[in-house]
Amino acid sequence: MFEPLPFDCELRTRWVARPLYFIAATASTNSLLRNLPASPGGTVILTDYQFSGRGRRGRRWSSAPGSGLLFSLLLPPMPTRNLSLLPIVTAVGVARGLEQYPEVTPLIKWPNDLLLHGRKIGGILVESEWSGSESSKTIVGVGLNVNDDNDHLDHVEGAASLSAFTGTVVARGELLATVLQALEDAYDAFLQGWMPHEEWSQRAKVPGKRLWVHSSEQVPWKATAVALGEHGELIVHNCVGETISLRAGDVSIRTMSPESIP
Ligand code: BTN
Known about the structure:
The chain is of the alpha+beta class. Helices cover 21% and strands 31% of the residues.
């Protein structure tokens, strides 16, 4: 089922992507990894094309064949108390990896979208399987628009690809090695007690960001970001100054455009 990588990739990681598998096409690397029996923590599945790529909150993730970086990583077992911050730690790790490229300064949109100049170039989907109150499998799926051309991305609202900002075709093997290394460093630090709140907040320009909050039940409402909460929730003030805690599974946010800020 698995094949050799379609590009050179010089991995320097200790446990992330040990092993690293490549499959030319699959429905979703998160789903494939979830169903792969007896895999060690660190296993990564990379693909060139997903025909049913999944995003957060039931959305789809689509990328033209051979253009993006689409992979899923199986994390080693970790204390349940750490799980809620994994989307945040992962976003910081991927941002650090992208930042290795000149002129690339990614921002994070809560909880874990990667943006360049206000356009989404990457997303993260963390999924855990539970047995009782313990998590038995946690999979981190990362999708980056790397060399996608505008024809493809024009259909996806607010999306852009990394190459539009670097000005050249990005070597995906090099990018993969850089991002996997940055992820390993972030997870290692996290497991040794580092907390991502401060760095995430700088990269997300929180506090002070003006937002629209979208939930399925209510009309969108205005808020101002106050802080990232202990467990990765976003703490905001609404327009009458009440403090509200937003959970990523319940709502999405849109950054307010400068012209609509009173
Ligand atoms: C989002 O922004 O909504 C998250 C997108 C996550 C996409 C990645 S691509 C690799 C992995 N496999 C999937 O089906 N989804 C994630």
